[in-house]
Design brief:
Order of helices and strands: HHEEEHEHEHEHHEHEH
Number of strands: 8
CATH class: Alpha Beta
Helix content: 25-40%
Strand content: 15-25%
Strand order of the largest sheet: 1-2-4-3-5-6-7-8
Length: 305
């Protein structure tokens, strides 16, 4: 029944993945899972767009990369890559960041935050917050005009939501939090986690593998891991982009509802018939182009507030 929810293009991609018979990430060592994700990260992603300004830099002691469509300081978004806090890198999200910069007319600063299990929770949160502070206080050091917001996908969306809450608590202004298929809950127990537990790209066993590498069960209701536990009143306006056939969709919708109930402006995009990570499948899915356009428009709007 649930397979009928998929678009024909998405169903075809999942069938190709199944027929390839590659071992799931949770069956691999951490090193092998990272290598596998890196090898396949841009197979379906759009070609890397040429930009006049792509520069390696260091932000708050961590490697980062600046993408800009013009060779001058521009308003910027801090971007956190996905990967369940365990996998993912600057390279796996290079194409995505290039297209966000090109389409928004703004700079994207992608951060290489520390990964678990070598650096368990809250290392990634600490790295994100340190980078956000550095970019807000000393934007010229990163070659940007000013920081207008923070964003990310999957675990990076979680980090972005938490960073927006941190900024709110310090009274530092952000014009946008861009949350693409974010995780927001303490435990993988929503209806969508059960409905899409197997066969929809991100499965229950992989989520459990990532969580277990990142944080003990006893600490998972910490709002820095599960932002749905926090009071979001006064946080930055949000653009929330979700996939219908994603274990994380219910918690993404719940967070969007929580933001709205707290008076936070929310632009919600729910893409039907696609799975987690769809935004990185632009070679095959028109929904990826729609999501990229919505994200870029949100960044552009934030830059003009």
């Amino acid at each position: 029944m649930t397979l009928n929810l998929l678009t024909p293009a998405m169903a075809g991609l999942l069938d190709r993945i199944r027929r390839a018979r590659r071992p799931p990430l949770h069956a691999l060592s951490v090193a092998a899972a990272r290598a596998a994700y890196e090898a396949g990260a841009e197979v379906l992603d759009l070609p890397r767009a040429p930009l006049p300004d792509v520069a390696s830099l260091t932000v708050a002691g961590r490697p980062a990369r600046r993408y800009a469509p013009q060779a001058r300081p521009l308003p910027a978004l801090l971007y956190l890559h996905g990967g369940g806090f365990v996998i993912g890198s600057l390279e796996t999200h290079d194409s995505l960041c290039r297209h966000l910069a090109l389409r928004s007319g703004c700079a994207i600063v992608s951060l290489d935050y520390r990964l678990a299990p070598e650096h368990p929770f809250p290392a990634a949160v600490d790295d994100t917050w340190a980078a956000l502070q550095a970019l807000l206080q000393r934007p010229a050091e990163a070659g940007i005009e000013r920081l207008v917001g923070v964003g990310g996908d999957s675990a990076g969306g979680t980090l972005a939501a938490v960073a927006a809450l941190h900024a709110r608590d310090r009274g530092w202004p952000l014009a946008l939090q861009l949350l693409i298929t974010p995780g927001t809950t303490a435990h993988a127990d929503t209806a969508s986690h059960k409905l899409f537990a197997e066969g929809f790209l991100l499965d229950a066993a992989t989520i459990a593998w990532m969580f277990d590498h990142t944080i003990p069960h006893a600490h998972r209701r910490d709002w820095r891991f599960a932002p749905l536990e926090a009071d979001p009143e006064g946080v930055a306006p949000a653009c929330v982009i979700l996939a219908e056939c994603d274990p994380l969709v219910d918690e993404g919708l719940a967070y969007a509802d929580r933001l709205r109930a707290a008076g936070v402006p929310v632009a919600l995009e729910l893409l039907r018939g696609v799975t987690h990570d769809f935004i990185k499948m632009g070679r095959a899915l028109r929904e990826a182009h729609h999501a990229l356009a919505a994200a870029a428009a949100a960044i552009q709007e934030a830059a003009h507030r």
